[in-house]
Input
Amino acid sequence: MSDSPAIVESHNPAQQHHFADMEQQRQAASLGMWLFLATEVMFFGGMFCAYLIYRYWYYPEFAAGSKTLDIWLGAINTGVLICSSLTVALSVRAAQFGKRKLLVTLLVATILLGLVFLGIKGVEWASKFEEHHVPGYSFHFEPQAHSHSNAEIDPQRIQIFFSLYFAMTGIHALHMVIGVGLFAVLTFYAWKGRYGAAYYTPIENAGLYWHFVDIIWIYLFPLLYLIDRKK
Amino acid sequence: MSEHIVSIKLYYAIWTALLLLTGITAGVAFIDLGPFNTVVALVIATLKAVLVLLFFMHLKYASEKMTSVVVISAIFWLLLLLALSLADYSTRPLGVS
Output
């Protein structure tokens, strides 16, 4: 009686006993991940709200601060993140088809792209330190003589722009570091062959997280780098 | 499996669109459109976010209706936060905190 084909067929080692079947388990995990992302929207929302209010108040200073950021490094980093989102999307597909080697390759590619993003971000931050644009005692801002000659620019207010810049890109980068760590663990288990067509929920949920972090950067790029670029 | 498997072609199409939109948003920033520079930048960013949500995050194919409820709620809460805060700060005399 224990070798009833229905039971043997339906039991996947990855299935938790409190779920009726794998499909129900997958849907529950997916909904939980989306709920977590909803809390992340609120978490980042607080910073976006602070940004909105100060940008509304101190627009000339925000424009002047934004112009000191390297628009090309920012654009390249956006491209790097979009490429990493593609490799993540393809890795979910590879798991759905049970292609283990392709899955591992794509996960490693994602990790590398994530590290490239963090490296470029590090270069940008380092130049901000060299230019004394980091808020604090050594903060110094030299307004460009030819731009905004009619508007008074208050260096104190530019510190608020850079505070928000470091807070928002810093928290975003922290999410990237966590994402790279997640994918490192998943790569290990994928190598050992844990994921396949019947069970790939961890890949899918880590992918949702990665795409969400990508969306945050999609908004950070225009909001921080592109405030007033027109000559 | 009720989970939809997206074709590789579609993934590459979305990827190309996202890269193109990134180039466009960086290029348009240098053209003087007055107050519409910000509007264009935010519209393009939202377009990119929607592409990622629908196709990369499979929202278009989600079999569970609850997922859409969660996403719409999250966007609603965010807009509530931003709109009500701005309604306060934008109606104060400038610089008064």
User: Anything to note?
Assistant: The radius of gyration of chain B is 18 Å.
